Amino acid sequence: MNMTKKMLYPLLFTLVALFVFSPLAHASERTLNIFHTNDIHATFDDFGKVSAYIHQQREAEEHVLYLDAGDFASGNPVVDLNYGKPMIDVFNLAGLDAFTIGNHEFDYGQRYLQENIEDSSFPWLGANVDTLDTDVTNPDPYTIIDVNGLSVALLGITQAPPATAPANVVGMEFDTDYVATALAYQDELEAEADVIIALTHIGYDQDRRLAESVDYFDLIIGAHSHTTLNQPVIVNGTPIAQTGSNLRNIGELELLYDDEAAEVTSVAGQLTSVSSLTDVDEAVQAVIDGYKEEMEDVLGKVVGYSNTGLTRDGRYTSDAPLGNFWTDAMRDFADADIALTNNGGLRDSIPAGDVTLNDIYKIEPFANEIMVIEMTGEAIEEVIAFSYSRDNRNQIDLQTSGLHYEIITGMTGSYLDSNLTVAGEVIDPEATYKVAVADYIGTGGSGYNFDGEVLQETVGLMTAAMEQYALSLTENGQALDYTSEGRISLKVDPTAPNPGEIIGSTNTGLYSINKLKQDVGIGNLYTDALREKTNSDFALLNGSSVTGEIPPGEITDRQIESLDSFGNTIVMVETTGKRIKEVILDQANYRNGVDLQTSGLTYTLIPADSGFADVVILLENGEPIDESTTYTVAYNDYMHGAAFYNLGTVMDDAIGPVWQSVVDYVSAQTEPINYVEGSRITIEGRDIEEPSGTLTVAQALANNSGVHPVIGYIVGSINNNQPIIGEGVHAPSNLLIADDPNETDRTKMLPVQLVNQTPVRNGLNLVNNPDNLGSYVRITGSLEAYFGTPGMRSPSDYAFIEEPEVPGEPGEPEPPICVYESWNSNDIYTAGDRVEHDGVFFEAQWWTQGENPNDSGTWDVWQKIAECEEIPEGPQEWHAKTIYTAGDRVLHDGQLFEAKWWTQGENPNDSGQWDVWKKIIDPEHIPEGPDEWKAETIYTAGDRVLHEGQLFEAKWWTQGENPNNSGQWDVWKKLNE
What are the CA-CA distances from residue 145 to residues 98, 888, 954 (Å)? Predict the structure, then answer.
């Protein structure tokens, strides 16, 4: 069935933008209609609607399947207190055809897992699950269903290991290699089925990796990540579908199968909101209502009242109100000094009002129990350090009672240290403390190690502790009112060095920003390291493996390790020049730009009307690569496992991690590591980009696209849509930066989004860091509209940098000394370096090497030094190659113009959509008093106009906004004078 699937990839790629397929099938085609759900999490109140809808579709269509991708359990006490049986009952009535086991199906323990499997009228799937000698029936790896003559294979893959309490999976094994699992069944599934579907519970990111590495699936239906895909997403020719979670949607897919070609020719899909359905399956609804009535008396019990509500919001950056109540209940129940529980266990919030047992079971649906462990202060410190830094998450994970802790991080958000206190006293590393913990983490869940003596394996259920504690507060006349109390805090140390041992340095910095356009510093470093490690002819790395930046300065080993979030290992293979050329060109066309970074060869992509027509590859000696010659190549295991990157036969795959080879390579260098970007990879006809892409605020405002670092002063924020400049009530979610620390003009400020739960927000926001006001920073992010103006979104990193030096005392600048070294084409220059060339003095605006100051390219990296030039009085004629900034005046065609923004090459008579040039009227011809407002004129703060007999003054930059209706910003203010 999949013999010709690769031939379909180009067709699928051309259709992906619209993803609309004709509903008219050819005579040889059959339509398979699939309805699917995932991550229901016991939200079964509306399942009667889903069941009715599926039965209706079975009556209307010839080939119908209903599938679920796992995690029906944990989330609703009606279901959870009955150990999942209510969901099994409604699945059976709805006619579920197949189910992949999710991680939460293990939550009830092995006894109830087995009962649920036995009670199901549908197969449970899990190709990478082996229950071994436990009493649990092993799930089938796959099932093949005959759908009215169309054979459909469903392969199940489960999260490995499943995120559940370790005790729930004792004695079982889980294969973590999802790709290997899928490939192991390829031959038999292709031999037995017309259509092959992966029904997975591994998360959207892992589904994408699966699609990139395995090409025989006609469709992947996923779960676990709660991702809402309104239509299937095509990855490497394979559609991926997922509905979100909690039964908000039911997925609908339509596959066309061509009998003559024996293959799936198209896949289309959409989501249907369950709330939009009206018909109800009465048999299913009767089951739901019956279970709810049985539990009503138990769950309706009121245990307290809360004026504030108990929210879990904020749990990743501090203590949350719900976390404080929860851990207080644990500590009281266990009579402990300290109580700790993980954020992943806080499944919901409790609103203000009566608090019932139903609320308690909703926030804790896992039936977790409380362990008590005697631990030293040192062991507790180690747990706190792990909790923040585990899996490089760099976020709070443990809520606390009895213990207060402060996490100290560096500029990148990496853990540096912590300060712990118990009962107001600094924790004693050698003293012992009685610690109550959730048994999920206490027994090793999420990688935790609570080192100490287990005093009690369980003192009871979490839910029982919270019920008892709530009742005791209520009996004492206390409401269940909690806030964030400062039990947990984050502190950024801007002076902290990069963590790890210093192993080298770089003068120029190493960047990845331009990796779609050329070779980049990070890519050159990584590929050189791989080639050195393996002594191979060449090294290649895909773009997604080359990320981040290393600023100028020292380089540490942990800094290198932190850049490699995937943990890829090195593979060396034999291949041909022809295959290397195929992969470079195919991936360039797929990415619409450079994909593979290289060492040992250079290449130039030749553009076509669409994509690239060819690639010219040269060896280091300048000769063309021989397509028939065999070469050795080093790359990573991800690339080797992906069919579209795979180069050939493995020679060695036990070389070690990519990042370790980079550390070894940097450590061996005796000179700073500097690269000239664009020297290995180019696109014909396109200019080389400056490595760091660093912009001033004015430049970022004028060129608001792409990902760039921007330098500027923090001058304020926007709170409730109002700019707050200087001191005031600031917002935690954004900043305003400007080129001048005393700037007051909003139009000269760049608003920067501070995304919640990120190191950038933790380190920069003015609410928690008021001393940052006025600081000079470099922030890297996506330049795009924010707050309705040019701005920056989703910043990835930042650094405080030294302010530019201003010579002499204010008002008394030192006279320039125009004596500089002569320009040398072999030297590397960075912004601010000054040189003499042909009797003229120049200053570098960017990083540059080999660019003649008299002809410095598209970017005009060299600018003449104004104070070293004889500048005639008054405005000069406009020049296309000169860079102008706001306030500069020029003459053009006999007319005077003033620049409103950073600009270069924009003719004042036609200055683009931003109208960067404003025509200045000769002062002798300016009438007295304000002019009448004109829609085409650009006004700035302080300009006054007349409109319909009324005087107005502009408060911001504006054009075309009628003073009588000046929009949400109220840019015009009416004056009474």
Answer: 9, 74, 71
